[in-house]
Amino acid sequence: IYVRDYLGRIESDIAWAIAATGTGSMIAALLVPTMLARWEIRNVMLGGSLLLTVSLLIGQLMVPWPLFLVLWCFIGAGLAMVQTPVGSLVRRSCHESDSAAYFSANFSLSHFCWFGSYLLAGYVGSAYGLADAFLILGLIAAAAVTLAWWIYPNPDPVEIEHTHEEIVHSHHHVHDDEHHHPDDYHELHEDHEDPLGAEQGHRHKHKHRPATHKHPYVIDRHHPRWAS
Fold first, then answer.
1. Distinct helix (H) and strand (E) counts, the chain
2. pTM exceeding 0.85
3. Of 167, 178, 174, 170, which is closest to residue 202 (Cα–Cα)?
C-alpha cells in the first residue's frame, strides 16, 4: 500500500521493498552470533526492539522512496535481532523436558500478537491513514521495549546462588541427598517398592532441608519465583 498507492511506484518496486527488509534481516542474523559473544542476550534483543521502535516512529514522516528502502532495511535488522536469539532464550529458561511446551507457548504468543497487530495496522491505516498506523504501532513497540527493559533481569546470569527454605511436598523423585525422608519412613514402608524401579524413582511426600546452592536457574516446582 505504501509503495504502490502512497509513493505511486510500480508493482515490481514492492519486491525491492521486501528485499530491503530481507537484506536487513540477513545481515543482522549473520551478525547476531558475534553480538551474543560480546553482549548479553538481553542487550541484543532490547537493541533490536529499540531499532524497530525508532524505525516505526520515523515511518510516520512518510519518507520518500530511497529513505523508505533504508527504513525497511532497519526494520528487518531490528526484527532479526529480536527473533534470532529467541531459541537460546527459551532453552535457558526451562528444563530440557519442558522445552517443547515453552517453545509452543512462545510460538502461540508471538503469533497471537502478530495477528492483533496486522488487524490494527490494517484498520488504522484504512481509517486514519498510514502515518497514524506507523505512529500507533511505534508507540506500542515503545511500550513493549520499555516493559521488557523493566522486567528482564539485569544482569541475567545463567547460574544464580539462592537459598531454599525447608519444604515438604510430593513429586516424582529418587532417594538422594536433596530428598530426605522421615526417620520412621522405612519402618512405615517396609514393603514399599519403587513402581518404576530404584533408578527411576517413585512419588510420595518427602522433605527438602534448608540449603544454599548455585546452579542454572529456571522456574520449576522447586523454584516457583525468580531469585532476588
1. 7, 4
2. no
3. 174
